[in-house]
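Structure first, sequence second, as always.
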């Protein structure tokens, strides 16, 4: 089986497996454009252990997406270093890091299956294996019966599931998600959050999730990283000490409110 299912409990307190670890050390990024320079991020350092679910929150424009793009190897930091699985990433490598963006970015002329297969076709993976892996990934995201549909035949939530399947198809130990559900209605968003948790508990990938939703960040994560406004700096790491599964009662409780308040205060400051 390509997409490894792990049956032990999620969120180990300590993991010696380095494959899904992410280490960001003194990272900064300055964009240089014709109209001038923008310092997006400054001096960011943190480590994420294998199998942890981390969210990144902060005001608009504080550099959350830039940070994720750097971890993915899509943008190079202008300062500092980033390692994934103990090694630097000088270019995108979907076998090490899968990425899911807000916009599903599916090819409209391809079926769901072919969209998911696409990164494997680029690597000239054998047709039969490609198909098997794509179907396995679609199954994992709950779209087993929809492989032959085209994007226009799918709802917004289903398109995001296809994008998630595409991010998972090469079974990377690390998955980066940049506001993946921001364009969805609230109900679909909640369902998708539960889906991601189910997949995370089954596969135990390291997940780094960017969101504007503080409740969403608390609901999903082991830890929430809080960035300040531009240039983004890491001002707090909030450990979410709520039991899992995060039931309706847990999410409506006093501790949840305390965590939300702390994160909100840090963002405002
Ligand atoms: N390619 C680029 N060229 C120039 N400036 C950029 C580029 N990408 C981002 N920026 C600038 O860098 C800063 C950080 O942008 P980024 O998109 O990383 O922030 P963000 O926290 O993800 O924002 P949002 O929450 O609104 O999505 C912003 O001021 C943005 O305008």
């Amino acid at each position: 089986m390509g997409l490894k299912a792990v049956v032990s409990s999620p969120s180990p307190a300590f993991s010696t497996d380095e494959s899904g670890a992410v280490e960001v050390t003194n990272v900064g990024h300055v964009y240089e454009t014709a109209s001038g320079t923008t310092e997006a991020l400054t001096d960011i350092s943190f480590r994420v252990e294998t199998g942890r679910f981390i969210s990144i929150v902060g005001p608009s424009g504080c550099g959350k997406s830039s940070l994720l793009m750097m971890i993915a190897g899509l943008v190079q930091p202008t300062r500092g270093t980033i390692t994934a699985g103990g090694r630097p990433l000088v270019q995108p490598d979907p076998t090490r890091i899968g990425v899911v963006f807000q916009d599903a970015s599916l090819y409209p002329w391809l079926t769901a299956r072919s969209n998911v297969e696409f990164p494997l076709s680029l690597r000239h993976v054998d047709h039969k294996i490609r198909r098997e892996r794509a179907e396995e990934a679609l199954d994992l995201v709950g779209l087993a019966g929809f492989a032959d549909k085209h994007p226009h035949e799918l709802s917004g939530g289903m398109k995001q599931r296809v994008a998630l399947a595409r991010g998972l198809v090469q079974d990377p130990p690390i998955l980066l998600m940049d506001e993946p559900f921001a364009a969805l209605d609230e109900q679909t968003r909640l369902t998708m959050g539960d889906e991601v948790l189910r997949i995370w508990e089954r596969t135990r990938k390291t997940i780094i999730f960017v969101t504007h939703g503080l409740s969403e960040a608390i609901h999903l994560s082991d830890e929430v990283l809080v960035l300040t406004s531009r240039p983004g700096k890491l001002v707090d790491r909030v450990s979410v000490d709520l039991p899992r599964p995060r039931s309706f009662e847990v999410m409506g409780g006093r501790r949840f409110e305390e965590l939300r308040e702390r994160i909100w205060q840090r963002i405002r400051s």
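Margin note: The chain has a mean pLDDT of 91.
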